[in-house]
Design brief:
- This protein is an alpha+beta fold and about 375 residues long.
- The chain is about 35% helix and about 25% strand.
Length: about 375
């Protein structure tokens, strides 16, 4: 018998996140996902009157493709996938993997070649379709979260199917504040960073694009970032785990970067000129996600966190920065993680992970649950 939670999640993705309707075409990109869930998602899309196009992939096969990718091969993949993407109105990617480090031994130059060449596919998907992406719960994810497989599955479905409509209403005041803000000041142990978000805008993330969700993002004016930021959560990039990343900025550019693998960190930041500038600033507040699990779709939504992102900016909140890199790095500011403060134009917005102004308090965990 199919797990009843599968249908609940499929209905959320189809009817809320992608908002499929009669006549829509939707690409369902299934990566190491149980067939039973793929079937439920396909059926949900058909019930909505949409035409589902299903792609089934496997991470071990993808690794082998990437290890020997050539420029000609990458261009062929780009052209075929971009042509297909232009045929659909909606896109859903569900990414499972039994080994989060499957691509750890793919040469960096092959990963960079593939990322640069196929970037137009992602740009089109992000800016021209109703898209949503999420992970699939696996034993490796449970292990990363220090949980049993069964407990993690319960956690996963609770997190992913929460009341996003309630969250959407609560985050509107934060979006308004970020849209009118100019100067931002971040303070935490090892962090003293200032920048401007004037004129950039802001965007609520309420379960329409990422599941799980729970953030409002903007973007620094490209050359306005000065100071340093010390991240206190691990991060995976292209299969490699990095810890204790510290970035130092001058006039928007990362002039010094250190971490658990400083040489590889800097090699990624040297992918192209835009990789050393910032493409996103966001505040996270999902009430059920409290600790990192080295999976960015979860970690960037941690209650009381923020993330700061070297690389590509989104068109929704655009500072003009372009890069093949978009690397969300997370700083948790709750007391047990060292605390911290977020200031907008001299006003204390969040202290030790809790929003201070009255209009923002509905975003604090006890009020969102």
């Amino acid at each position: 018998m199919t797990d009843p939670r599968y249908r609940k999640l499929a209905d959320l993705l189809v009817n809320y996140s992608m908002a499929l309707k009669k006549g829509d075409r939707a690409l369902l990109d299934m990566i190491d996902v149980p067939d039973e869930f793929t079937v439920e998602l396909l059926r949900a899309a058909r019930r909505a009157g949409a035409t589902p196009l299903v792609e089934v992939r496997h991470t071990r096969v993808t690794r082998e493709v990437l290890k020997g990718i050539s420029a000609e091969h990458a261009r062929l993949v780009r052209d075929l996938e971009l042509a297909r993407m232009k045929k659909v109105q909606a896109y859903c990617a569900i990414r499972g993997s039994n080994n989060a480090s499957e691509n750890a031994d793919v040469p960096s130059d092959r990963m960079q070649l593939y990322s640069k060449t196929t970037r137009p596919v992602q740009n089109y998907r992000v800016n021209r379709t109703r898209w949503v992406v999420l992970r699939w719960p696996t034993p490796s994810m449970a292990q990363a979260a220090n949980m049993s497989t069964e407990a993690f599955e319960d956690f996963y479905f609770n997190v992913c199917t929460m009341n996003y409509r309630k969250m959407a209403k609560a985050m509107l005041p934060l979006e308004k504040r970020m849209k009118r803000a100019n100067r931002v000041h971040l303070k935490s142990p090892g962090t003293d960073l200032t920048f401007s978000i004037k004129g950039i805008g802001a965007r609520c993330c309420e379960g329409l694009r990422n599941i799980p969700d729970g953030e409002v993002f903007s973007c620094p004016v490209r050359d306005s970032v000065n100071g340093c930021i010390q991240f206190n959560t691990p991060t995976l990039y292209s299969g490699t785990k990095f810890e204790n990343i510290r970035l130092e900025f001058k006039d928007g550019k990362i002039i010094k970067a250190t971490g658990s693998d400083t040489p590889k960190l800097n090699k990624i930041l040297d992918t192209d000129p835009g990789a050393r500038y910032i493409g996103e600033f966001s505040l996270g507040f999902h009430p059920y996600i409290m600790n990192p699990m080295c999976d960015i779709l979860f970690d960037e939504k941690i209650a009381g966190s923020l993330h700061f992102t070297p690389g590509q900016a989104y068109e929704d909140c655009d500072n003009g920065n372009r890069s093949a890199v978009h690397w969300d790095m997370v700083l948790i500011q709750r007391p047990e993680w060292g605390g911290g403060e977020v200031w907008f134009d001299g006003e204390l917005i969040r202290k030790n992970g809790l929003f201070v102004p009255k209009d923002l308090r509905p975003l604090n965990p006890k009020n969102l649950k």
